[in-house]
């Protein structure tokens, strides 16, 4: 124990300190959560606490540092009345390296003359040590960010584990900008777990390059270097697999892996595992930057890529504090709610809430308490799935207008500006999705919602309106767990689940809780838990950090019998057991490429017998499948058995009916001809890959064709509504809209991208095998068109320049040239005048942002 820690232990163990600290903490939390804060603290109490905090702040122990931070925040409430508090707080924050708190507390004021010379220079020296140059500007980092910066600047690979609000993304983005400005031809890829996060990261990177120092692409197409050098790729692991298949010689110098702990989650964890090893095999000396919330052993990421030199930085420090507040409905009184502070496993009474109306169940409690406690500041409300999102958002909006509950609706920001922003946002929701989309109604009342299936530009518009203070609430799903940066003062939860079936685990709970409190805008955030004792899980009882074990390793060690059975069985439909299918497909490719031993060597806990059984079973399966390695690599999530059965069918049909029989037409071909060729393609993948029959292809083929042809989403949704009316099905517009959004995002852009990619790869091998290789060039890039929702070269190039599909469609309608290359697309955009092109505000805004970077 260090000398400072010894003093900290003595101070914290003193009963007088404990009493003083409880008083300032309780008052700070009550005030921060919107409750009456009670009697003022005496000046002598504050003086003792601040003296203690200056010592705690010098420790490296997160426990003491948290005490210092809490004292500092609580004392600042008295800074207007008592001299010396602001000076002491500035010193404490500086010793903590918490410069966002200094900026927020003192609004950019320079160090005052009232500071003693020693304190003045200590603060100044600390700030200078934490200041880095990024291009022509400088940034002051927190202590954690500075440690990360130094490790990255040395060229080391790093695994960072830190709380949600610690500022991980900021320092990674700053390092990327610094690196690209110094080495414009460095190849960088930023891996994110979802398409929602692609939009956010790409937007942040483009904002850092307003001087066009580097470019950013989110399309899995090999980009040609420009005067700005090579672009930064922002991709999901699945998109990187597509890029690697089309660019076998591509290698990267640096890979940033956001939310790296998801390597432990099912089939997508196997995909991430696979691309990490592909990255390393293409460039063994590359730099990896792994970012994750609090995990127990971040070094596991180095093991996956075969590197023992990955530096590990693990911190529990957060520059924003979170208050966990339980809200329990009182038994026997439907209008009483008890608020209790949860801290270190104990509960302390905080306040009593009198509801304006009876609250009969937990769901109603979530809605009412979100409104009652969240209306004074911005709040996130966690919901299970899109339907619940829409339902809760609508009910909060209605509650805010209910005269039985409130006299006036909540407001935030300059009221007239907020009204206009909400009006514009409502109009855009109708333009981008459908006139009946419920978001258009809720945002007018200051309540938005957010889930991954919402079109990116609209989702970004909701995020921006919230970030700028024009929306009071966002009701959201587990998209937040995948790294989307959307903090708020308050977070409300009631029996949360990850997905729609799995009760939330501790690490995911603390990841969500970390969204409470906005770095640089709040000192603390509030996490309100409604009827916690009735939840299906008890996340407060579990550890904040998570033991990470790669999904591939879990499958091989904990489910080896099931995996061996799966590998041996040639009659399992694709999609039945995604994690087993993904593991089998990866291991089969490794076996074929001579990399199986390398992969197995990096997995811990694998018994010699299991290893031998896996190796021999794969060898037998490989003989049965016998397809080219390139074909198998093109469809890394689909069983080789299913691909082989499709291949045998194709060879037979080509020999009987010729090569053109199986080749689909380009989506831009005349509608009937294209659809007549596409329907059988969907029928074949259903039959030979999923082993299912029926008429499913009659729904999916026209939906896919409309999507690939770039038709606007409102038109596609309207067709679906009319289809259900023709079928005599009584489905609400709200339900049909959600279903179409799900069909597009989860099925067309994920499942069918994989299956049609497999169809094309197997067809290519079948054509070559039957001596029709010249026909391979006729196979259209359906997976790319499905992924982007565009088949014309003009729309594809506009999307590659950073425009959303919606804006790309709107702008492509301003020209009859459907075949622009990248240079022509740039020139086309540069000729447009956003103000006179007849665009809606959000489309115009996106065009202006992109024009700054081309």
The major beta sheet can be summarized as: 8 strands, mixed
Give the overall average pLDDT.
92
CATH C-level name of the domain at 323-541: Alpha Beta
Helix content: 40-55%
- Overall structural class, as computed from helix and strand content, comes to alpha/beta
Strand order of the largest sheet: 12-11-10-19-16-13-15-14
CATH superfamily of the domain at 323-541: P-loop containing nucleotide triphosphate hydrolases
Task: Tell me which CATH architecture of the domain at 323-541 applies here.
Answer: 3-Layer(aba) Sandwich
Total count of strands: 19
Low-confidence stretches: 409-414
Termini separation comes to 56 Å
The proportion of strand residues reads: 5-15%
| CATH fold type of the domain at 323-541 | Rossmann fold
Overall outline: globular
Radius of gyration computed on alpha carbons: 28 Å
| Helical run tally | 35
What key phrases describe this protein's structure?
Rossmann fold; 19 strands; globular; 854 residues; alpha/beta; 7-stranded parallel sheet; single chain; 8-stranded mixed sheet; 10% strand
Task: Please explain how this structure is put together.
Among the domains are: 127 residues; 181 residues, Rossmann fold, CATH 3.40.50; 219 residues, P-loop containing nucleotide triphosphate hydrolases (Rossmann fold, 3-Layer(aba) Sandwich); 59 residues, no CATH class. Helix content is 51%, strand content 10%. The chain has 35 helices and 19 strands. The strands form four sheets. It has an eight-stranded mixed beta sheet with strand order 12-11-10-19-16-13-15-14, sandwiched between helices. A seven-stranded parallel beta sheet has the order 5-6-4-7-8-3-9. Helix 5 packs antiparallel against helix 6, helix 21 packs parallel to helix 24 and helix 32 packs across helix 33. About 1% of the residues have low confidence.
């Amino acid at each position: 124990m260090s000398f400072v820690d010894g003093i900290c232990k003595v101070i914290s163990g003193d009963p007088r300190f404990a009493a003083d600290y409880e008083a300032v903490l309780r008052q700070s939390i009550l005030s921060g959560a919107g409750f009456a804060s009670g009697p003022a603290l005496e000046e002598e109490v504050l003086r003792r606490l601040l003296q203690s905090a200056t010592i705690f702040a010098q420790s490296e122990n997160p426990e003491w540092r948290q005490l210092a931070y809490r004292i500092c925040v609580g004392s600042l409430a008295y800074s207007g009345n008592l001299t010396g508090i602001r000076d002491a707080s500035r010193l404490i924050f500086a010793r903590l390296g918490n410069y966002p708190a200094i900026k927020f507390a003192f609004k950019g004021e320079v160090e005052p003359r009232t500071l003693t010379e020693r304190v003045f220079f200590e603060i100044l020296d600390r700030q200078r040590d934490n200041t880095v140059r990024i291009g022509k500007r400088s940034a002051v980092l927190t202590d954690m960010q500075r440690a990360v910066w130094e490790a990255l600047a040395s060229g080391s690979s790093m695994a960072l584990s830190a709380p949600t609000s610690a500022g991980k993304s900021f320092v990674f983005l700053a390092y990327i900008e610094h690196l690209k400005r110094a080495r414009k031809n460095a190849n960088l890829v930023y891996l994110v777990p979802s398409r929602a996060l692609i939009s956010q990261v790409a937007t942040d990177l483009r904002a850092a390059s307003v001087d066009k120092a580097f470019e950013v692409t989110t399309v899995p197409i090999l980009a040609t270097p420009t005067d700005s050098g090579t672009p930064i790729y922002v991709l999901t692991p699945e998109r990187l697999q597509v890029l690697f298949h089309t660019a076998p010689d591509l290698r990267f110098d640096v890979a940033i892996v956001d939310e790296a702990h998801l390597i432990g989650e099912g089939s997508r964890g196997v995909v991430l595992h696979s691309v990490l090893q592909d990255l390393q095999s293409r460039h063994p000396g590359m730099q990896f930057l792994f970012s994750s919330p609090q995990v127990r052993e971040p070094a596991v990421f180095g093991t996956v890529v075969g590197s023992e030199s990955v530096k590990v930085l693990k911190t529990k420090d957060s520059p924003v504090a979170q208050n966990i507040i339980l809200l329990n409905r009182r038994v026997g009184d439907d209008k009483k709610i008890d608020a209790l502070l949860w801290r270190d496993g104990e509960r302390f009474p905080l306040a009593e809430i009198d509801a304006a109306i009876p609250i009969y169940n937990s769901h109603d409690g979530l809605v009412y308490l979100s409104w009652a406690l969240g209306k004074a500041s911005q709040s996130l409300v966690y919901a299970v799935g899109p339907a619940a999102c829409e339902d809760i958002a609508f009910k909060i909006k209605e509650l805010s207008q209910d005269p039985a509950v409130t006299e006036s609706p909540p407001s935030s920001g300059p009221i007239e500006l907020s009204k206009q922003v909400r009006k514009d946002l409502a109009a855009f929701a109708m333009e981008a999705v459908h006139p009946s989309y419920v978001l258009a109604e809720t945002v007018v009342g200051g309540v938005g919602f957010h889930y991954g299936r919402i079109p990116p530009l609209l989702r970004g518009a909701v995020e921006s309106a919230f970030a700028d203070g024009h929306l009071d609430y966002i009701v959201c799903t587990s998209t937040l767990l995948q790294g989307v940066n959307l903090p708020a003062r308050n977070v409300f939860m009631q029996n949360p689940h990850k997905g729609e079936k799995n009760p939330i685990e501790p690490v995911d709970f603390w990841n969500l809780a970390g969204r409470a409190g906005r770095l640089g805008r709040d000192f603390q955030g509030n996490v309100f838990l409604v009827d916690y004792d009735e939840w299906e899980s008890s996340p407060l009882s579990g550890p904040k950090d998570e033991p990470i074990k790669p999904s591939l390793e879990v499958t091989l060690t904990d489910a080896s019998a099931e995996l061996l059975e799966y590998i041996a069985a040639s009659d399992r439909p694709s999609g039945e057991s995604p994690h087993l299918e993904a593991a089998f497909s990866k291991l089969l490719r490794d076996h074929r490429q001579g990399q199986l031993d390398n992969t197995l060597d990096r997995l811990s806990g694998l018994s010699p017998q299991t290893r031998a059984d896996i190796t021999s079973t794969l060898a037998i399966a490989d003989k049965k499948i016998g397809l080219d390695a390139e074909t198998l690599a093109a469809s890394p999530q689909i069983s080789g058995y299913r691909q082989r059965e499709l291949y045998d069918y194709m060879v037979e049909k080509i020999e009987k009916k010729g090569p053109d029989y199986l080749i689909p037409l380009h989506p831009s071909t005349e509608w009937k001809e294209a659809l007549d060729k596409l329907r059988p393609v969907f029928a074949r993948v259903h039959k030979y890959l999923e082993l299912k029959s029926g008429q499913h292809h009659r729904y999916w083929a026209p939906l896919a064709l409309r999507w690939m042809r770039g038709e606007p989403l409102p038109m596609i949704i309207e067709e679906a509504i009319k289809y259900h009316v023709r079928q005599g099905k009584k489905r609400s517009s709200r339900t049909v809209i959600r279903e179409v959004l799900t069909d597009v995002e989860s099925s067309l852009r994920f499942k069918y991208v994989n299956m049609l990619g497999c169809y094309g790869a197997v067809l290519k091998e079948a054509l070559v095998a039957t001596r029709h290789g010249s026909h391979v060039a006729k196979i259209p890039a359906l997976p790319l068109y499905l992924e982007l929702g565009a088949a014309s070269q003009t729309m594809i190039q506009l999307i590659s320049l950073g425009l959303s599909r919606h804006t790309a469609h709107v702008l492509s309608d301003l020209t009859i040239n459907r075949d622009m290359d990248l240079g022509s697309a740039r020139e086309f955009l540069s000729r447009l005048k956003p103000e006179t092109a007849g665009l809606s505000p959000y489309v115009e805004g996106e065009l202006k942002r992109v024009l700054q970077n081309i």
